[in-house]
Amino acid sequence: MENCDELMPDYLNFIKGVVDSEDLPLNISRETLQQSKILKVIRKNLIKKCMELFNEIAEDKDNFKKFYEQFGKNIKLGIHEDSTNRKKLAEFLRYQTSTSGDETSSLQEYVSRMKENQTSIYYITGESREAVANSAFVERVKKRGFEVIYMIDPIDEYCVQQLKEFDGKKLVSVTREGLELPESEDEKKKFEEDKVKFEKLCKVMKDILDKKVQKVSVSNRLVSSPCCIVTSEYGWSANMERIMKAQALRDSSTMGYMASKKNLEINPDHSIMKALRERVEADQDDKTARDLVVLLFETALLTSGFSLEEPGSHANRIFRMIKLGLDIDEADAVEESTSAAPAVTKVEGAEEDESRMEEVD
Compositional bias (Acidic residues) at which positions (predicted)? Predict the structure, then answer.
């Protein structure tokens, strides 16, 4: 009997072998197996045998690297589907990190390198290593000396939804709200002062952006970026939103609900935010300030991995800013484009040709 789904789970479909038993119960046609406790016992033992085999392969690092390149997705699928063996399968995961270079590390190796004051495993999901390594989300985490795991495989999004912790350490996404990093008393005090100082700017920005964001708040995760878009704890990440948009049979209602949970976090130490705060406090109805807020939000969407709903509007705002930088008057630009349009002249003999065409018709 071939392709017996009852004996092996889907994620181990690359395993080939023969199961020989005198106790397998067949149906009356003797073509298919009947459900019984014996099948469950055999299935459990086969999975256990596979785990032992993976352990043997993992002892040779070079050999396991080749194995993982071929079947790493199957292991991640197993973490998503097999709750019984999830903990064991997690030991076989391998990822590049912010400190590992081109080499990959296991979660156990990551835990062994954790700092004394570190209580969580930090990770970021994205489209490529370059994108996640240069992301605004990892700025503060890396500056504090904490290692960040780079998850760049689409199936990692599904895998990490089920794998909540490893070795007693919680897995924390650096792209979600509520990221807590170990801070000194002075840093906590400064953060509270910044929240008060930028309270009005946050309120004005929320009013301008309206339903585009859930809230605007002061961030403690940014270093060199002026702002970023973070998702709520239960919303989709930017990478997950991109993956779901590519699904042909996606649920539109779920898409609209899960994708809408975005929060804008601003960097209180950035010169742009300081200047914008002063401008808003002077006149919160300043048209240029409103334009800048929308432009900052749309730019933050792009740098945070999201896509724009109206790229044309974003381009027009960029063009307006370029004109301001070049001291080009809007009226002059329109007049210039009008005068540049060539006049259409009537070709000699065209009327005669038209009349001939009418005769043919």
Answer: 350-361
Handedness of CA 169, 172, 178, 182 (dihedral sign): positive
Write the DSSP string, 299-337.
HHHHHTT---S-HHHHHHHHHHHHHHHTT--HHHHHHHH
Neighbours of 304 (CB within 10 A): 22
Average pLDDT for the chain: 85
Task: Determine the Cα–Cα distance for residues 50 and 116; give it in Å rounded to an integer.
Answer: 35
DSSP β-bridge partners for residue 218: 266
Arithmetic mean of pLDDT, 80-90: 95
CATH architecture of 60-174: 3-Layer(aba) Sandwich (3.40)
CATH 1.20.120.790 for the 196-331 domain, yes or no: yes
CB 329 within 8 A of CB 260: no
Range 55-63 average pLDDT: 94
HSE at residue 26, side-chain half, CA atoms within 13 A, is 8
Whether 170 contacts 120, CB under 8 Å: yes
pLDDT confidence bin for 356, thresholds 50/70/90:
very low
